[in-house]
Amino acid sequence: MNLFELTVPQLAKTLRNVDRWLKSAEQYAEQRKFPVDNLIGARLAPDQYPLVRQIQTVCDNAKFIPGRLAGKEWPAHADTETTFEQLHARITAVLTYLETFKTSDLEGSAEKKISLPWMQSKWMTGIEYVTQFALPNFYFHTTLCYAILRHNGVPLGKNDFIGGIPMRD
Amino acid sequence: MNLFELTVPQLAKTLRNVDRWLKSAEQYAEQRKFPVDNLIGARLAPDQYPLVRQIQTVCDNAKFIPGRLAGKEWPAHADTETTFEQLHARITAVLTYLETFKTSDLEGSAEKKISLPWMQSKWMTGIEYVTQFALPNFYFHTTLCYAILRHNGVPLGKNDFIGGIPMRD
């Protein structure tokens, strides 16, 4: 099993979805005449990440996942974004990194030992990492971005979350 | 590629996580002295599913995904739950259904043509269905259950969302 198909194209597609939600928020802010960057600090609970950190985390997961599986260095980001414009730029930077991956980069990664930075001495296999940790965590933060925007009135629906699906006749 | 490992055990694990969040909500309600079933209709936006329907949808996805991949009939549920007790029972029923699956039931399902009820004449492959639609959709509703409870003060954290991961020394 090559983990490329389960990760790289789907992470990129989802990042492009998130980028579109930010654009919907910008349109909504323009209609309602408020500065869109007011949403940067919005959160659903006082002890939960605000929108800006949810987006940063989505971007980080999208680079960590194939980066760890392929053992390929990822671009560093300083987590200093304070505007929607900067968040778009961060998403674009990660999309550019994802475009550098080929299917062969993830050859054998299902059986590879993957460690996490906060448990360096322990490991799980690549397929366990993707299935049980990486994808659930990625969709967790992605959904929280969506939910924070929805909670603040941005008109989004399930189709915006999923994006296009490859239906054939 | 057999899709069993990507779906059945992980869907079951996540359902058990959701069941625990409901128990945390029950404990919180007892401490704060409110009827826990007050949370059944809670939602994050007026045009979004409330908690009860998020849980019903999580349960439905958990049976639809392996059911469609294996072509195996799933138990019907009438969506009539109005209490946490009934939601626990629904989760338990789906867990029992998931326990009937063997790895061999999903043999060849990555290439199988999968249609969706609202687009019966169209199809995608099993791997496309799992990667691009089924798992993102499952985690979407799962995260919304979590987010609705968090927004209402239930003390949950990321570890509760992910559940245990199979780390080895």
Strand order of the biggest β-sheet of chain A:
1-2
Total beta strand runs of chain A: 2
Helix content of chain A: 55-70%
The percentage of residues in β strands of chain A lies in 5-15%
Number of structurally distinct domains of chain A? 1
Question: What name does the CATH topology of chain A carry?
Answer: Four Helix Bundle (Hemerythrin (Met), subunit A)
Calculate the terminal CA-CA distance of chain A, rounded to whole Å.
Answer: 28 Å
- The parts of chain A where pLDDT drops under 50 for at least 5 residues are none
Following the backbone from N to C, one meets helices and strands of chain A in this order, namely HHHEEHH
Largest interface (C-beta under 8 Å): A-B, 40 and 40 residues
Query: What does the overall shape of chain A look like?
Result: globular
Structural class of chain A: mainly alpha
**Which CATH architecture of chain A is right?**
Up-down Bundle
Radius of gyration of chain A: 17 Å
* CATH class call of chain A: Mainly Alpha
